[in-house]
């Protein structure tokens, strides 16, 4: 299944094509698309509420066409018998379709009020202040209304995009911006990346897509897509009976600096539970020679270790010593599959020469930066990276000629040719030390089994998040979820996926 995500520019093009298909040039009257948006959103609102409510519904309608959608919703729900209050921030020049919607709402039983202070509580807020036309931070009454919604305990349904959120980037439009925190978003014509990454994950809530009947118009290649098992199912294969540990790859974690041995062990455990044939920790400093809980992991001195022919996961607990730098440069100059994480990324950021050699690496490469590591590699701040996660991940993938997993809410997986996927599995339980080490070990295992970098990054990111979701569903989090719990849950998710793929 494909899950395309469209940029605002692409949605505008789709909207234009749909408008001219549904309403030939020169004709006027209500917009069929706005009518459809209003109908879809009214139906969805009743679904969210579980039927026609007895309480009041508050509709916030802005000056543009997003406000027009909201006025259609107000008219529809009021005509069905709901008690609807409307706060309308009228603009100076509403579009003809919004004018029609306003007339419909005014002719209905909906009550127009000048401020939310006139409303006595409500069972649903419908946010139709701004959609894809948002051009600057919210201010004045719009800002006050949004801040007021933050105090509401009832469901908040955003139309198209939560007001205040950038639909392309998933960041709240600022500086010092605010945005609606919706429990549900119904988005029109096509799904949008900003609903699934960065701040968007907290502001959009559950996302429901309605194409408004504009099928067949989505001809332009999507800007990005949502990650899903279908994107890497071709690499999932059950184990052959006639196989042995050599069949499933050697993974070597280059880490183990003094005081940071745990990071390498977590990456190694993840590799083991994800099915690597043999797992090594190649330690840059003397340290533990055994993981008592996982004695299958083999510990070696990195200085004399033969990295050739093995997949290397460089970085977890590696430190930045001269010895670590030398070993990193050695594996970068090798030709095997490579995962670059944590300290290894920081060393590349500090050395243009190392970064250039990484870009020239002969084998498959996946890098797994968090926003600050990505910022160091790009020579910007973490805030700049977070302001446009998709574009910065793309830029990094192109510069380093590697597949990038930019971690954080709605991880961005980017390829050097500009292809991007957003990952929707996972939860805030992953915001704890060591989970990145686990992800790196998981990516390394899949690379070590011959997966291409893109599919390995997609699958690892999906599985890592799904494992965290499984743990939370079982009561282990999100508060207090530990990285060490992830490998077993990853094993369960991976086996379930392989079993599903075998049945398909
Ligand atoms: N044209 C149509 O027939 C359709 C429009 N649709 C809806 O229309 C929306 C886009 O409509 P618009 O292009 O009118 O854009 P919006 O309704 O998102 O808002 C644009 C208006 O708000 C102003 N504005 C932007 N930022 C502001 C700010 N921070 N403070 C105050 N004013 C601000 C703009 O100058 C403009 O007047 C979509 O998100 C969707 O909800 C959908 O219903 C599909 C059909
Ligand atoms: K909105």
Summarize the structure.
The protein has 504 residues and is an alpha/beta fold. The protein has helices spanning 8-22, 32-49, 65-79, 96-107, 140-149, 200-204, 261-273, 322-332, 342-350, 352-359, 371-378, 382-387, 389-400, 435-448, 453-473, 486-503; strands spanning 4-5, 56-61, 83-88, 111-113, 124-128, 156-159, 184-188, 206-210, 224-226, 250-255, 278-283, 298-301, 311-314, 338-340, 365-367, 403-406, 412-414, 420-422. The strands form 2 sheets. The protein has an 11-stranded mixed sheet with strand order 1-9-18-17-16-15-14-13-10-11-12, with helices on both faces. Strands 4-3-2-5-6-7-8 form a 7-stranded parallel sheet, with helices on one face.
What does this structure look like?
Helix 15 crosses helix 16. A hairpin with a 5-residue loop joins strand 16 and strand 17 (412-414). This protein folds into two domains: 4-222, YjeF N-terminal domain (Rossmann fold); 229-503, Ribokinase (UDP-N-acetylmuramoyl-L-alanine:D-glutamate ligase). It is elongated. With 504 residues, it is α/β, with parallel strands linked by helices. Helix content is 39%, strand content 15%. The site of ligand NAX has 27 residues, from helix 2 and helix 3. Ligand NAX binds at residues 15, 31, 33-34, 37, 62-67, 69, 91, 97, 130-136, 138, 142, 159-161, 188. Its cofactor is K(+); Mg(2+).
């Amino acid at each position: 299944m494909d899950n395309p995500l469209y940029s605002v520019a692409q949605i505008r093009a789709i909207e234009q094509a749909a408008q001219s298909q549904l309403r030939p040039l020169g004709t006027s009257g209500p917009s069929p698309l706005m009518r459809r948006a209003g109908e879809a959103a009214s139906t969805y609102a009743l679904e969210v509420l579980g039927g026609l409510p007895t309480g009041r519904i508050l509709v916030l309608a802005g000056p543009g066409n997003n406000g027009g959608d909201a006025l259609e919703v107000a008219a529809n729900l009021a005509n069905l018998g709901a008690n609807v209050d409307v706060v309308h921030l009228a603009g100076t020049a509403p579009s003809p379709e919004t004018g029609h919607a306003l007339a419909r709402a005014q002719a209905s039983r909906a009550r127009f009020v000048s401020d939310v202070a006139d409303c006595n509580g409500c069972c649903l807020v419908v946010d139709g202040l701004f959609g894809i036309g948002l051009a600057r931070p919210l201010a004045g009454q719009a800002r006050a209304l949004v801040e007021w919604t933050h105090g509401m305990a009832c469901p908040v349904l955003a139309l198209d995009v939560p007001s205040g959120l950038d639909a392309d980037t998933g960041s709240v439009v600022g500086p010092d911006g605010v945005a609606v925190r919706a429990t549900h978003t119904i988005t029109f014509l096509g799904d949008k990346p900003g609903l699934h990454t960065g701040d968007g994950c907290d502001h959009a809530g559950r996302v429901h897509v309605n194409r408004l009947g504009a099928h067949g118009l989505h001809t332009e290649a999507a800007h990005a897509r949502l990650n899903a098992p279908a994107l890497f199912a071709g690499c999932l294969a059950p184990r052959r009976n006639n196989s042995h540990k050599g069949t499933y790859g050697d993974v070597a974690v280059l880490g183990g600096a003094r005081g940071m041995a745990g990071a390498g062990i977590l990456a190694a455990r993840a590799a083991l539970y994800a099915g690597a044939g043999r797992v090594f920790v190649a330690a840059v400093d003397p340290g533990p020679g055994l993981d008592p809980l996982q004695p299958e992991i083999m510990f070696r001195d990195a200085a004399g270790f033969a990295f050739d022919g093995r997949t290397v996961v460089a970085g977890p607990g590696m430190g930045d010593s001269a010895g670590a730098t030398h070993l990193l440069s050695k594996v970068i100059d090798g030709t095997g599959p490579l995962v670059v994480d944590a300290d290894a990324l920081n060393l590349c950021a500090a050395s243009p020469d190392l970064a250039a050699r990484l870009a020239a690496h002969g084998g498959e490469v996946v890098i797994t930066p968090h926003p600050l590591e990505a910022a160091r590699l790009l020579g910007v701040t973490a805030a700049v990276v977070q302001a446009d996660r998709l574009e910065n991940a793309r830029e990094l993938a192109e510069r380093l000629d590697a597949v990038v997993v930019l971690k954080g809410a709605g991880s961005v997986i980017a390829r050097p040719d500009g292809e991007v996927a957003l990952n929707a599995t996972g939860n805030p339980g992953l915001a704890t030390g060591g989970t990145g080490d686990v992800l790196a070990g998981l990516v390394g295992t899949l690379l070590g089994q011959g997966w291409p970098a893109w599919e390995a990054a997609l699958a690892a990111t999906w599985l890592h998040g799904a494992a965290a979701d499984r743990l939370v569903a079982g009561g282990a989090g999100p508060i207090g979820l530990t990285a060490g719990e992830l490998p077993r849950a990853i094993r369960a998710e991976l086996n379930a996926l392989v079993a599903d793929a075998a049945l398909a």
